[in-house]
Amino acid sequence: MKRYLALSRTTHAVLDIACPGFCALLWLGRFPEWPVLLLALLTVFAAYTAIYTLNDLVGMAGDREKFAGGINAGYSVEASELRYPLARNALSLREGVLWFAAWFAIALLGAYLLNVAILIILIAAAILEVIYCLLFKVTYLRVLVSGLVKSSGPVAAIFAVDHQPSLYLLLLVFAWVFFWEIGGQNIPADWNDTVEDRRVNAKTIPIQFGFRKAGLIVVVALSLTVVTSMFLPVVSPVPLGWPYMLASAAVGFMLLLKPGYQLFKQYQEGRLAAKLFDHASYYPLAQLAIIAIFVLLS
Length: 298
Description:
298 residues; mainly alpha; Tetracycline Repressor, domain 2; 0% strand
């Protein structure tokens, strides 16, 4: 089972679930009814499990080439010794496909039961994930596709609690997740894999622009994330005043801006990219904890 959990990056996937949870709770202003909540949790877990598995399935050949000369130590939330089990022949292609198909089927059913719009979002996310993988050696602009894929989960979560959400408020939430993914997840992850990516002539922002400029892009993206988060209270029916905004800004500073600026200033220290990735991975969970407290107090 450990091989399958490594394939779907379950530790990271569980952390990622906090982001849709935060967005749904912020949007609704209260906890959903138990049937909706349980179905949504199952659906989002199945969706993240399937999409992460799809990433390794589509990228299997590239991963084998990439790690032919050895695999790096990884970062804490994805540092399993069994990382990339398909590329390392710890799982067969058939086993990987069956694992993906089972979880994707569960996600599709759950999405259909919650809201047909979520079904469309899920299918679109899977297609975009395939495109993202295929662009590995084509263009660094695939980072934008990554932002679209990661934003699909939180947007889908909003459709789970509101069948006719405001387009403008949806775009606000989308922008917040989009900037966080680019600055806190995608670029740091590529930065951590720079040695391996150069072996196969991959197109990533750290390789294309160098570490100094990549660090600047990270700082800009994370700054936009924190600035955008200051406008998120308009999404919620709960009156979220300065105490909420200060708490949100504080976790943004500690988990995003501080490690991001350290990476920019000390870009020669590659492990700082892994540190940023780890801190940023906990950012949605921290936001979920904050909004949960304010919703309960309200």
